[in-house]
């Protein structure tokens, strides 16, 4: 039978072994950041071998692919969570569904605005004229390429039907009341574009031309 002193030493050694085993499990390396197995917005930060559980701000996710010199909490489109599907409960405000993120403003017929939520405050921004905010990429894109945008309603233009047997993948049409503005019909879906200063769209050559060369625009 072990004496009390030897038993105490054994307990201490066992406790230390368990402690260092836990440390090695939590910190594969002395310094680094590692994902939590089931949660995508939490991570373990190891500093000098000591693990600390960290939580990203609401709306951001932990990206385990970035270097130690890069902030690890990033927007969802930049992070592959894999099986880490759980996240913290959202912390919405009056204008933002999450504290951080980019979100479309408007309905399918009004696609040109979006808001950048930072710390729960929404900053509304406009896409360049004729482009629509794409929630899948956080970028302004051609309206016909944005799933939740009705390009015809948004641009106010519907591509005319094509003649039977003469299908053209791309067609051009000048806007009715603006000589500098024209529409591209790509697979019969509209996009809008503009000619530069002192130019007008010439439907005879399907290109921008000098204003003097375009009937009704001089």
UniProtKB/TrEMBL annotation:
Residues in the signal sequence: 1-24
InterPro entries: Chitin-bd_dom, Chitin-bd_dom_sf, Chitin_bind-dev_reg
Domain Chitin-binding type-2: residue ranges: 24-83, 93-151, 156-218
Matches recorded under Pfam families: CBM_14
Gene Ontology annotations for the cellular component aspect, listed alphabetically: extracellular region
GO molecular function: chitin binding
Keyword line: Chitin-binding, Disulfide bond, Glycoprotein, Repeat, Signal
This protein's name: Chitin-binding type-2 domain-containing protein
Originating species: Anopheles christyi
């Amino acid at each position: 039978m072990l004496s009390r002193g030897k038993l105490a030493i054994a307990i201490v050694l066992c406790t230390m072994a368990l402690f260092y085993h836990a440390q090695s499990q939590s910190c594969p390396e002395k310094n680094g950041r590692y994902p939590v197995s089931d949660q995508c917005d939490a991570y373990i930060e190891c500093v000098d071998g000591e693990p600390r559980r960290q939580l990203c701000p609401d709306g951001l996710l932990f990206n385990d692919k970035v270097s130690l010199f890069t902030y690890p909490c990033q927007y969802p489109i930049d992070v592959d969570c894999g099986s880490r599907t759980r996240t913290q409960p959202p912390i919405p405000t009056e204008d933002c569904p999450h504290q951080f993120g980019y979100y479309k403003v408007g309905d399918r017929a009004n696609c040109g605005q979006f808001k950048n939520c930072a710390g729960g405050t929404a900053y509304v921004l406009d896409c360049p004229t004729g482009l629509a905010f794409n929630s899948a990429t956080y970028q302004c894109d051609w309206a016909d390429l944005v799933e939740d945008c009705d390009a015809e309603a948004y641009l106010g233009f519907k591509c005319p039907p094509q003649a039977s047997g003469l299908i053209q993948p791309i067609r051009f049409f000048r806007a009715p009341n603006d000589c500098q503005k024209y529409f591209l019909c790509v697979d019969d879906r509209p996009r809008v574009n503009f000619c530069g200063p002192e130019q007008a769209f010439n439907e005879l050559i399907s290109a921008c031309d000098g204003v003097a060369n375009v009937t009704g625009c001089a």
